[in-house]
Design goal:
The structure is a homotetramer. By secondary structure, the first copy, chain A, is mainly α. Chain A is built from 9 helices and no strands. The longest helix of chain A has 26 residues. Chain A is elongated, with a radius of gyration of 18 Å. Chains A and B meet through helix 6, helix 8 and helix 9 of A and helix 6, helix 8 and helix 9 of B. Chain A binds a DNA duplex through helix 2 and helix 3.
Chain lengths: ~180, ~180, ~180, ~180
DNA sequence: CATGAATGAGTGTTCATTCAT
DNA sequence: AATGAATGAACACTCATTCAT
């Protein structure tokens, strides 16, 4: 299963989505097509699983940061969050850009990372905000968007660290006005 | 050409990406397949054109807001920007979610809206910021992400207006710390 | 009409039969598709006309040789015939090989050159042969096959002149046994 | 594979080249289109294989005649050659005419029969000729052309046997002058 | 469980042909 | 007569999926 998803990733990076056929997946994974269908009902499920796997990896990072900064000020936790997410995406920007742009998302089932962030932050932000609802709407969007941008779309002249720092400033600025 | 893109949109909304075949496009557009190929070299080009058209429409909105608030404070201009973009996307959220999730983007050629915003804001923000580079990195990301979120992914209990307002607050907060 | 056939020849040589489309013919000939259809009922007719034109050109060569050697011994006439045909084909071997191999012949309507040769030789050979029928069967076949072979398929080490001479010897040898 | 080529032959004879579509081939061969593509990379390859198969069949006949008349005079061997080739083509003249006229040859890769003949005859003719090169150029051309003509294009009034005999005479006459 | 040959519905695309101008 | 945009039937080919071994 992991092997299959890894095969998809390899094909995706080497030749693009259009080269991702079930037969090629099997070949690259070193199994037979039949075996691919033992684990996934159809091709769509493979893409879903790929997105899910990524979401879970990011989710684990989020949980870890939340747990590790349970007592600390929200700003610190968020800085850690941004840090972890940016690093994770920066490890293979090409892949994550591809995942976003080319691999179909089946609209609606998504926003997994934002949702996860929202849930994870609910507790951490509860005491801070007069209107939790609105804060929990904005912060995950900022974290997700800025982390992606920092890792994948920052200007050529800006370092990863500088981008992280600026992302942190933006989120902190918002949190401050949400007293 | 417009008719063809409109046909794609219609099929997309009614039956999803997989139903978008060149023959069906022709049928829905009321022309022959051959004519579709008179205007587009292949199916991929149709999707590209669809994304481009959307980007241009948003670009025009951006330009309009920038021009109309040329003398006004940046905050106001940005509020107008968010307003216009949110309204534009809110007019047909389903479509824009689809466009984002299912219609392949050909990774890399993208971020059109952010880029346009960046260029449009360069002048408006020039006097404000000590480090224009970083501001021009963050603001377009915030505008784009919050506008999309407000229009397409806001919590069920939050009104469009409330989402816009909150988006505005977040961006304003960042601009304030970027003296 | 000539222009159209010339266009076909040009495309044929530059890009092969598969590139010969009616639209491309029109383009290369410098007219519109509609005009092509003014002169030819359909695409097949163009190929037929091409073969016919070639057959007529060869036919004229045959007639000329026959007329010019009307009084001379048959051997001489045949030598002239082979000479003329070989030269004609050797002028553009590539084209004639293409014409033979790739341009569909519509089986059965063919053997135009052999038939023409047969008719042209009927008189010249009449006095020589006890069985004209058989001679008129063999000689055109020899002339056609050897002329083509000499012009288009002779071994790399053999000169055109040598090939012609050898072709002549073969035909003469046959004529001699056909007293 | 044999089944596929046989299907092509069947369609060719019944409905002509234009009816030879990959789907129809599959249908007539009793397999699926997919299976056709398991054995042949594309449609062109099928035609090539068809020509190749024919060339091999003829080649086997040539080899057999050469072997069986290894010690005998060259005249006899050639008579046997002509005999075998004429009979082979006469068994289904229509098909071989079609193969020649309508099935594209991909110019240049061809003359397979002549080449085979040339190689087969090299040994047999070696002692006879002062100039082997020229003899090996002419004889295969004569054998091929006369065998085809006898089988496929002889005058209506001439029997197969008579045509064979006359072909033999022509070749023998040439061999005699090539002492 | 694994295999991978076989399947065939379905797709993108081409191109001969037409006909209103 | 000439044009060339429009047509759409038809085709080569792919690839997700199955199932007998």
């Amino acid at each position: 299963m992991e092997a299959i998803l890894d095969a998809v990733v390899r094909i995706l990076k080497r030749q693009g989505v259009d080269a991702v056929t079930t037969n090629r997946i099997a070949e690259v994974a070193g199994v037979s097509v039949g075996s691919v269908y033992q684990y996934f009902p159809d091709k769509g499920a493979i893409f879903v699983a790929l997105h899910d796997r990524h979401a879970e990896q990011m989710g684990r990072l989020v949980d870890k940061a939340v747990v590790e900064h349970a007592g600390a000020p929200a700003e610190e936790m968020i800085a850690a969050l941004v840090d972890a997410l940016v690093d994770a995406h920066a490890r293979d920007p090409e892949l994550f850009a591809l995942l976003d742009a080319e691999v179909p998302h089946r609209a609606g089932g998504e926003r997994a990372l934002e949702t996860h962030l929202r849930n994870a932050l609910r507790l951490a932000l509860a005491p801070r905000s007069r209107d939790l609802e609105r804060t929990l709407f904005v912060v995950p969007v900022l974290v997700d968007a800025l982390a992606h941008a920092a890792a994948l779309h920052r200007p050529a002249r800006m370092s990863l660290e500088a981008a992280k720092r600026e992302a942190g400033r933006a989120i902190r600025a918002y949190l401050r006005v949400t007293s």
